[in-house]
Amino acid sequence: MIVPAFNVALYIKDTIDSLLAQTYRNFEIVVVDDVSTDNTIEIVKEYQDPRIVVVRHEVNSGLAAARNTGILSSRGEYISLLDGDDIAEPTRLAEQLAFLESDPSLGMVGSHVSVINQDGSFRG
Fold first, then answer.
1. Which of 1, 46, 62, 96 is most buried (most C-beta within 10 Å)?
2. Per-residue confidence in pLDDT tens, the chain, 124 aa
3. Which residues constitute the domain of residue 82?
4. Residue at 109 is within a domain
5. In Å, what is the CA distance from 36 to each residue of 13, 62, 81, 100, 118?
6. Is residue 110 situated within a structural domain?
7. 79 with 71: CB under 8 angstroms?
8. What predicted TM-score, i.e. pTM, was given to this entire model?
9. What dihedral do alpha carbons 63, 43, 79, 108 form, nearest 10°?
């Protein structure tokens, strides 16, 4: 899982917790800090899970560059993206992996999103 992060201290804990709660467990979380000026990176470093890898940019480079850095830093067979202010449903990775492996001609899958407010309530 590639997680670009820039000044997402308010959300990054929920993001990482949603990934650690996945029903599929065999994956790494590559958090790419794009030179945050808040305490995003300190929050990430509080986790002791060996699946979490932190990569830091030297210069703020933007979302696309952070994703690319994460892709280059990852070791898995598949790449999955989740922004540092998003939350993944617990079965997301299991369902996407099963779908990909059910048809070798597939190269990519997407998913539905629900937009939520800062307090976690769904926006209409």
1. 1
2. 999 999 999 999 999 999 999 999 999 999 999 999 999 999 999 999 999 999 999 999 999 999 999 999 999 999 999 999 999 999 999 999 999 999 999 999 988 887 777 777 776 5
3. 2-102
4. no
5. 15, 11, 19, 34, 19
6. no
7. yes
8. 0.92
9. -70
**Phi, psi dihedrals of residue 33, rounded to the nearest 5°:** -85, 120
d(CA 9, CA 59): 19
Q: Is 47 exposed, middle or buried (0-12, 13-18, 19+ CB in 10 A)?
A: middle
Q: Would 114 be classed as within a structural domain?
A: no
Tokens of 62: 């933007």
- The CATH number assigned to the domain holding 8 equals 3.90.550.10
Assign 3-class secondary structure to the chain. CEEEECCCCCCHHHHHHHHHCCCCCCCCEEEEECCCCCCHHHHHHCCCCCCEEEEECCCCCCHHHHHHHHHHHCCCCCCCECCCCCCCCCCHHHHHHHHHHHCCCCCCCCCCCCCECCCCCECC
Structural domain contains residue 119: no
Residue 97 · residue 78 · CB < 8 Å: yes
Residue with tokens 């899958």: 109
